[in-house]
Amino acid sequence: xxxxxxxxxxxxxxxxxxxxxxxxxxxxxxxxxxxxxxxxxxxxxxxxxxxxxxxxxxxxxxxxxxxxxxxxxxxxxxxxxxxxxxxxxxxxxxxxxxxxxxxxxxxxxxxxxxxxxxxxxxxxxxxxxxxxxxxxxxxxxxxxxxxxxxxxxxxxxxxxxxxxxxxxxxxxxxxxxxxxxxxxxxxxxxxxxxxxxxxxxxxxxxxxxxxxxxxxxxxxxxxxxxxxxxxx
Length: 232
Prior knowledge:
Elements: E1 4-7, E2 13-15, E3 18-19, E4 24-27, H1 33-42, E5 48-51, H2 56-62, H3 66-75, E6 79-81, E7 100-106, H4 119-139, E8 140-151, H5 161-167, E9 171-177, E10 205-211, H6 215-226
Parallel strand pairs: 4-5, 4-7, 5-6, 7-8
Antiparallel strand pairs: 1-2, 2-3, 8-10, 9-10
Helix pairs in contact: 1-3
């Protein structure tokens, strides 16, 4: 299980990589269960902005647990914004005046068009991630981090997450194994098709942490690459 509700002398509460002292932007939420998990751990969601690509109407049709999560988030002070496209989020009129300590996109996916190993399907996925990274770069505070949780086995390893981050000016800070059980109440959703409300097996996956480069971080990223821990 993850580290939950640990409070220091300053009243800060943490769960895994996230703190109640961080200004957090969550992108591509499905049923908002990840956002609700963080909010419960912090005891407040006043530091969080949670977004979905879906409209509120579509969200409630697709996800049986969405309403309960949204109510819980609103009661805890979360800012919730629907119909946010990761390709244009830095220009969204409700977001463009903010910057964030953590920008998080769990299991980005373009939808189910072809089999996951097909080149065209992989390119669709990469287009989603690339657009997200470009926008996240512009919304990041100094010393802030962009987090992408992603499967690491084939064919998902073909997305080359780290290379795309490097292309937009971000470098790898760390790659940490991800377990859904570290986030009580979180349910990863398929998000599309007639099984949109079903979970999917995450298998081998990691949370990739990126930052804008510093000299020390460039050196660390080079060493991680030499040790073959970035992507296979």
